[in-house]
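FORM 7B: Structural annotation worksheet

SECTION A. Query
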Amino acid sequence: MEIVSEHRCFGGVQGIYRHQSRQTKTPMQFSVFVPSSAVEGTHPVLWFLSGLTCTEENFTVKSGSQKFADRHGMIVVAPDTSPRGAGVAGEDESYDFGTGAGFYLDATRPPWNEHYQMYSYITQELQNVVCKNFPIDSSRQGITGHSMGGHGALTIGLRNPQLYRSISAFSPICSPTRCPWGQKALTGYLGDDSSAWAQYDAVELIRDGHRSGSILVDQGDADNFLTEQLKPELLASICTDSGQPLQLRRQQGYDHSYYFISSFIEDHIAFHASRLK
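SECTION B. Predicted structure
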């Protein structure tokens, strides 16, 4: 693991790191905030998965999360959203597929399956890297994210309840099988057989019996992607029907930006901290 940068921040250390990934077969960067209390013992960790076009840096520099993470003694990890420079033809042609748009799944369709293995990268390889190199208590992990990353947090958390004890999301793509962003990604990475898509759709996972503790979702009602892409009403409906606890907060006047995330990141860190004691 290579140190790209480290800076003192709210008493802790905010770093950017790089390693050679076996899953993606490319160098991968990720962000880690280690709180000031980490001079002794191990600490809970919160994973933040970012949205389309983002790198590990967007959340790190825009969210203001470090102040609240230090207050709660929480390590925060923010991975990149896709492989970089994999050399797959067409990966840089659009903002919502390929580079910056890994959708937190394991591609099975050539040529994407050679490098676009973000589900396994997050849940296995990067797990091992950060738990080896930082004072993390691996039994106390939570996961959150924004937009595409909110989809990632919901699906990864629901599929791995033994690993992630708490789940939240900002403006998540709640049902990728039912929106243009998701349908494009699922077809491109997995193929036309929609039966393979359900494992990456939070609504379908809950319908199939996957469960977590109470899930927190914040959604701005002025989000210009709300109706066509995000569809929180589908998540609310399946949670009600199945008995999956969900706290869906519709925030008046907020959009899809990091101004929205920074306004409520304190609440999300406190939510995870209370469940990772």
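SECTION C. Observations
DSSP finds nine helices and nine strands in the chain. The chain has a mean pLDDT of 98.

SECTION D. Sign-off
Analyst initials: ____
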